[in-house]
Design a protein that fits this description.
There is one protein chain. The protein has 184 residues and is mainly beta. The chain is built from one helix and 17 strands.
């Protein structure tokens, strides 16, 4: 199935169409099962949380795509440059990184059919107290086998390593056509 997410949708909010799209990515992820695709419109998304230890998680066997205007019926119709979909790790105070997510996106023990495609990942700040919490401010793959494609990691930070992206705990991360820029 295709599950739709649009910040500005005003319909039934059941994810069944663009008109009735979920308004949060979390709702789309929760509704998805193995083999589903989540299509997300342009806009800046921040997880609905107050905790820096939360994150967007990739669900096993689910493909999540950004870059939609909200009218497409085929994946090939999306325009990534015209419809930037941002996953933002800054929760509240835009002038401080003290409340930023440790990881904006996390893949934990997922399979190779799991995919993140067409997102800009910003403002992750991996400065936690354990090794895994000090790596991968933008994206961390812990023991999973997944693909990240057509994504940009920008302005993320890590205390230990992999400010943009970190591979941890024997996983396999396939990256295709990604831009890694201005991370620390």
């Amino acid at each position: 199935a295709t599950i739709y997410v649009d910040l500005n949708a005003s319909g039934a909010s059941d994810g069944s169409s663009w008109a009735d799209a979920f308004t949060t990515i979390e709702d789309g992820i929760d509704a998805a099962t193995i083999g589903d695709q989540i299509w997300v419109t342009a806009g800046s998304f921040t997880p609905e949380t107050e905790s820096a230890s939360d994150y967007y998680y990739l669900k096993n066997g689910v493909e999540m795509y950004g870059g939609f205007a909200g009218t497409e019926t085929e994946l090939a119709e999306r325009d990534l440059s015209a419809n930037e979909t941002i996953l933002d790790g800054n929760l509240n105070d835009l002038r401080s990184t003290s409340d930023n997510l440790l990881h904006v996106v996390k893949a934990l023990d997922v399979t190779i059919s799991t995919r993140l495609d067409g997102f800009t990942i910003v403002n992750g700040t991996a400065d936690g107290v354990s090794l895994a919490a000090e790596m991968g401010g933008g994206f961390i793959n812990e023991g999973g086998r997944c693909t990240v494609a057509n994504c940009t990691c920008l302005g993320n930070y890590s205390e230990y390593g992999g400010g943009a992206v970190a591979q941890y705990s024997n996983g396999i991360l396939n990256m295709d056509n990604c831009i890694i820029r201005s991370n620390y």
